[in-house]
Amino acid sequence: MAAYEDQHVHQVYDKIASHFSATRYKPWPIVHGFLSSLPPGSVGIDVGCGNGKYLNINPNVFIVGSDRCENLVKIAKDQAPTQDVATADILSQPHRPSTFDFALSIAVIHHLSSPERRVEAIASILELLKPAGEGKALLYVWALEQKSSRRGWDENSEQDVLVPWVLTKQFKESSKKKKAGSTESESRASTENTETPDNSEESKPFLRYYHLYKQGELEDNVKSAGGNVLNSGYEKDNWWAIVERTT
After folding, report:
1. Which of 30, 71, 160, 209 has a CA 20 to 30 Å removed from the CA of 132?
2. Which domain, by its residues, includes 110?
3. Cα–Cα distance, 91 to 236 (Å, whole number)
4. What CA–CA distance (Å, rounded) separates 116 from 95?
């Protein structure tokens, strides 16, 4: 499973980091609301922080960022120079348990390729939180139920899929030169919702693994990981849950 994820998740993000970052600049409303509601002085962690777009949402809290992709970590450090960002795997976090007031994991858990590994990932996030209701985490995963989206998935679709990303020539060359940053103008020039942003002959598809969560599955995973679901819902092709530790 780890080797499969290395091929279809980690290696892909290393190659598409600049292009991926250029399409990820607008925060999800519920994530923005969650961060804005935190008490001043709160300390949290963004597990799978990507390009760091959530690290500066609330200037009154401190967020430690971590991501498995070194190139995205470089971008996050540039975007959030006042925050700490490190390269780390979701299943092997270097931080002390029971440390954080809050945690984020946005569009990460669905990249784990077995039920056991997804539950383990959630358990690793819960372990970082302060115990017994003192800390809470917001989790986001891609939904199986996307009938109205351009992807057209619904409850009868396969849950384990490979989703193509087409790297345009511009970012292909940038990746080769190890230029992992992107400017705001590049971000706004890119379409936000581009899983296949270009179909030219000079583009190359990369296949990313996703497990598409069906309704109720995220909550079940949280319970299996030893957590309690405080709130949950659906937002634009994603299932989300706010969770806490039970011990």
Report:
1. 30
2. 2-245
3. 27
4. 22
